[in-house]
Design a protein that fits this description.
Length: 279
């Protein structure tokens, strides 16, 4: 169910959020196999439209999975450059009930949200206001991990949601790891939304995003790379493929981009010095 309120942004919570996917009641369908059809039911991942109102001004509407909406909102504000820290938000209210509006009051009451948007390749109606062609300072990090650490981290991410994938399906998963354990896991119909959720939870719980591994099951496209750069994560790894533009941006922004990390193999496209061979 959608959040109906929140503690003050930036207040670190002692309770770790429960990992789950917002889903419907079981939906009936015909299961066809080996030439035979039989009735079956299965829950489905939820999708809904939420409108952002910033300083009393309508900004945009996003499609997402309606769960842990405060993290999504806080992370989206951060990744799009409207805030630099949770304290930049004076108040954030989600809903309530069927009122699917995220109302944000910034401490800077004069700030107006950007209007020049880019429709992205992200599923679930992706949009970004970040200028992907802009010059950005290269990420500098002393992080070094082995290839086996990257593969193991992605394995832990997939295992964390394996039961929900079998039971529900239809969502992307991303996570943040220190190379030893998963620090944050997020799920959403939109792969770009999962990174916003991670950023929001890290900001709210005081979890550093720099010098960490950003993991995802989805394709790494330009807007995903832009969010990783904003989060200052030096390594992003996926079981899927990157786009050509994402590789170009990763070269420019000093990000190690890893794709097709499956089984015992992976493709390192940029800045391979951060990925060490097994000792």
């Amino acid at each position: 169910m959608p959040d109906r309120g929140m503690k003050r942004p930036g207040e670190n919570r002692a309770d770790r959020p429960t990992l789950f996917t917002a889903h419907s009641d079981p939906v009936p369908y015909l299961h066809w196999r080996d030439g035979k059809a039989s009735p079956a039911t299965k829950p489905m991942v939820l999708e809904s439209a939420w409108t952002f109102s910033v300083n009393g001004e309508h900004w945009l509407t996003v499609l997402c999975t309606p769960a842990q909406m405060t993290y999504l909102a806080l992370g989206f504000l951060y990744n799009e450059g409207l805030i630099a820290a949770p304290d930049d938000v004076a108040d954030l209210q989600v809903g309530p009930g069927a009122d699917r509006v995220i109302r944000v009051e910034l401490r800077d009451r004069s700030l107006r949200p950007p209007r020049r948007r880019t429709l992205t390749s992200g599923c679930g109606g992706g949009v970004t206001f970040v200028d992907l062609a802009a010059t950005r300072e290269s990420i500098r990090s002393s992080l070094r991990v082995t290839a086996n650490q990257v593969l193991a981290a992605l394995g832990r991410l997939q295992e964390a949601v394996r039961a929900d994938h079998r039971r529900i399906g239809g969502f992307h998963t991303s996570g943040l790891s220190d190379g030893r354990e998963l620090l944050v896991v997020s799920m959403d119909i939109g792969r770009h939304n999962t990174l916003d959720r991670i950023a929001g939870e890290c900001l709210d719980r005081g979890i550093p995003m720099a010098d960490a591994l950003l993991l995802t099951t989805g394709r790494v496209s330009a807007e995903m790379l832009g969010k990783a750069a904003r989060m200052q994560t030096p390594v992003i790894a996926s079981v899927n493929s990157p786009t050509h533009l994402a590789v170009q941006l990763a070269h420019q922004w000093g990000i190690t981009l890893v794709g097709y990390a499956r089984g015992s193999t992976l493709h390192i496209y940029t800045h391979p010095e951060r990925i060490l061979a097994p000792q």
